[in-house]
Predict the structure.
Amino acid sequence: MNVLTNPSQLLVKNSDVLEAERILVIQPENDGFVPRLCQQGSVSVNVFTTSEAVRSRLVDLGVSDACIAYGECIPAPEEKPDTVILYLQKSREFMSYLLAMSLPLLTDNGRLLLVGENGSGIKSWQKRLAAYGDVEKIDSARHCSLYVLTPVDKPSPFVINDWKASFEEVVHDVCIMAETLPGVFNHGRLDVGTRLLLETMEAGFKGDVLDFGCGSGVVGAWLAKRFPGIRLSLLDNDAMALAATRETCRINDVDPVAVIASNGLESVRGRFNAIVSNPPFHEGVKTQYETTEQFLKASKSLLKPKGRLRIVANSFLRYPPIIETVFGHCHVLAKRDGFTVYEAING
Ligand SMILES: C[S@@+](CC[C@H](N)C(=O)[O-])C[C@H]1O[C@@H](n2cnc3c(N)ncnc32)[C@H](O)[C@@H]1O
């Protein structure tokens, strides 16, 4: 609980800037910063996160569920925050989305604190933030920087529809339309690996099917159009992805059994005839790799007899030994452009 990431340590080091009446923390890290802030007692704390892993961890650490908003939009607060703390996000577009959504919520004299790792590009945000108001650097330490933004003009109201994008693709004569939002994988186009995965799905899908790490929902929705009898569940950790998935299902007339917010397979109940996935991959963030390893190890217990696991992954990732250990075999169904599609049957 006391373990803090470097950005959180920098915030704690500058505790004087945390003196406020109402703080909204946006995209906190999976650490003890928010519980620590809540313990101060004198400040009212609310949290917005798009990560189910962070939401459930905060609840485990004793933060009241009522203070945490998990979703694609920050609900209008009963009382406006005078301070927003925003943790730097990797996607520039998602950052702009979070700024557009949070700045209109601030009180008239409110300010926004932006914190993040120097190696993740926080310094470039000093310039970008200047488009929203006065920016000052507060501190730089622990390989991180902390800035304060005081908005000058009244920001325009946030309209989520302005941030939606869509694309359309045809695979095996099945046309799929996908709706996406900032930060969602595949925002605006079909990924090369995802296309390869769909191309291997010519036959053999029936019964209960789970799309793990569904992103915009394109894999599951395509499967439901190709094999109309399946009972489809789609799962992601990311609330932005789940919002896009619901929309993708709606515009394709696909009616899923469940759209599940889950960190890994934690919240999944029941067993499946097939689990399909373009799982999260290693991008220098250790936990991303662990998520997929754990998913592969646990997938067998969620498959019915003769149920199949089918995934696509970057060919360099060492998933086949894990799949072989779990299932006793690992078939290669396709390989192209640096991606490989693997299948294993629960036999
Ligand atoms: C490579 S993307 C694939 C998205 C989509 N299936 C496609 O092919 O376009 C992987 C997805 O896994 C999700 N993800 C990452 N970590 C996760 C976790 N711990 N539990 C569940 N889903 C996770 C990401 O949000 C992302 O949507």
Residues 53, 185-186, 191, 194, 213-216, 218-219, 236-238, 241, 262-264, 278-280, 291 surround S-adenosylmethionine (CB under 6 Å). The chain has two domains: 6-156, 164-345. The two ends are 42 Å apart (CA to CA).
